[in-house]
Amino acid sequence: MKWWQGGLFVWMTATIVAGFLYAPLARKLYEYTRIIYFHIPAAWVSMVAFVVAGVEGARYLWKRNPVNDVRSAAAARLGLVFCALATVTGMLFAKAMWGEYWNWDPRQVTIFFLLLIYAAYLTLRAAIDDPERRARVAAVYAILAMVTAPFLMFVLPRLSPFTLHPEPIVNGAGKLEMHPRMFGVFLSSTGAFTALFFWILSVEVRTARARQASRPAAPREEREISFDRAARA
Amino acid sequence: MSIWAGATAVWGKELRGEWRARYSLGSSILFAAVTLAVLSFAAGPQARRPETAAVLLWTVLLFSATASLSNAFAREVEGGTWDLLRHAAGPGEVLLGKWLAGLCVLGLVEVFILAGGALLVAPSVGHPAGLAAILAAGTMALAIGLPLVAALLAQARSHGGLAAALAFPVLVPAVFAAVSGTRRALEGTWPGDELRILIGFAAALALAGWRLFDFVWED
Questions:
Q1: Within 10 Å of residue B122's Cβ, how many Cβ atoms?
Q2: How far, in Å, CA of B47 to CA of B97, rounded?
Q3: What is the DSSP letter of A216?
Q4: Which of A60, A190, B68, B85 could form a disulfide with A41 if both were Cys (CB 3.0 to 4.6 A apart)?
Q5: Does the structure's ipTM exceed the value 0.95?
Q6: Of A124, A140, A151, which has the smallest distance from its Cβ to B201's Cβ?
Q7: What tens digit of pLDDT does each residue of B15-54 get?
Q8: What's this model's pTM, rounded to 2 decimal places?
Q9: Side-chain-side CA neighbours of residue A51 (13 Å)
């Protein structure tokens, strides 16, 4: 284990403990306050993954380095997982606070559409056999999705005045208003989740490269985009 | 040949093909008629309420647009004209031509849907100019977004089943804003915020599509 991996383990553990023992409860949210240290960072990381998938897709189109395609796909896969986590934790919170798992809150709906975009991206990849074409088409879709994401996450929720998201956390002005100790734990959790995402991303990319290297001799077209060529480039 | 001349040539080819075979228009109008009849029948008198009428209109429009525009490029692959088109015109000309042709087809389908909607649902329109503006902006967003997704779909193994799965999540901002704007226009308010979102979204998609289409079009 490298030193920073141990550091990340300590960081996450300390954040979880602080979320339960150090941070105060928010007004009207009771013990359900704790979920913000996991739900919002998961939603944040799903957005970060989205940007990484789009940026790596753009880098692939520019440089034609297959490593960028592998990173883009891995970021989308991880984004899907974090997005599902954000949706599920949000639903649990909704059930506990408002009595229903699904309330048609604009933010609840938009994060669900983000989930659908990730699923569509991975379905598109699965529907194309040729690796070079798959990488190119998926990169274009990832960038188009990146154009849609800010409208989904930041513009559309403002269109509807109705939101059940609690005022101390997300208010009408879109600002975070928390007790300083809550805010500290929240920032720490967001940082830890982001670091965790980049660590898993690096593991995913290394695994994909190892799988590629261990594959038997591929047809000519596949060899042309092999990682060896990328390394030479 | 200027880009505009090339685009109008592709546009003309698309419209001539549509006129001869009516592959998009005929099926889309039939699709719209069936969907409109089924949904308005299911909704009953409630369909006249602004919020229901707005959802009804854009549901029919979105599905009809997907039915007509999602195979814009798959047709070229299936007909064996993809390579021919690649040699005859540049990527920008092809995309612009497809956008214009899609706008024409979608405009005609929309006229039919509006006429059918006025006949079957007959909602009262509080702000006709607002409704016209929202319809124009929303149609533009769909006509820009759907051919882009269609170009990606043409490179996949199966086109039909994937069209809605790929296109709808990307077009959600346009549909949300269009439904909200239509509801406000039917209630008699100018849908300024929704118009700004629709125009901004359509412009962002057009710009991204214009920059990215070279990569989709390459061999």
A1: 12
A2: 37
A3: P
A4: A190
A5: no
A6: A151
A7: 888 888 777 788 888 888 898 888 888 888 888 899 899 9
A8: 0.85
A9: 10
